Amino acid sequence: MKHYRSKPSSMIVIGGRALGLEFAQMYARFGTKVTLLQRSDRIIPDHEPEISDALRHLISTDDRIDIVTGVQVDQVYQKDGSKYVKASVDTGKKVLVFEAEQLLMATGRRPNTAVAFGKCWHQNKKRRGCHS
């Protein structure tokens, strides 16, 4: 997590599972205006729909987090000090552009070690494994 000298005024969080929700709620409680973008049609999609609906209602009203679901991120870019996320929403029916001072990616916890170890293994065959 990047260390900020001051609280960002606005933030886009991409990812609506546990870590994304925790960071979104934390920053919202610090006073940052937070927009959370989730790929699936609901936050925490691995849980029961009733829990997802109740949690969405709670954090969108109590913490004033804007939650947008059904989002396919098409482009992320920076311009004039702001971060932008261009995304298709509602299975491509709408294209929206979100703007914020900061962007936080919380899109998963599965490591992509196959690529890293594959490169490392090929570069260091004689020494067997990863070495710096």
Automatic annotation (TrEMBL):
Domain of life, source organism: Archaea
Domain FAD/NAD(P)-binding: 5-116
Molecular functions (GO terms): flavin adenine dinucleotide binding; NAD(P)H dehydrogenase (quinone) activity
InterPro entries attached to this UniProt entry: FAD/NAD-bd_sf (IPR036188), FAD/NAD-binding_dom (IPR023753)
This protein's name: Putative mercuric reductase, MerA
Phylogenetic classification of the source organism: Archaea, Nitrososphaerota, Nitrososphaeria, Nitrososphaerales, Nitrososphaeraceae
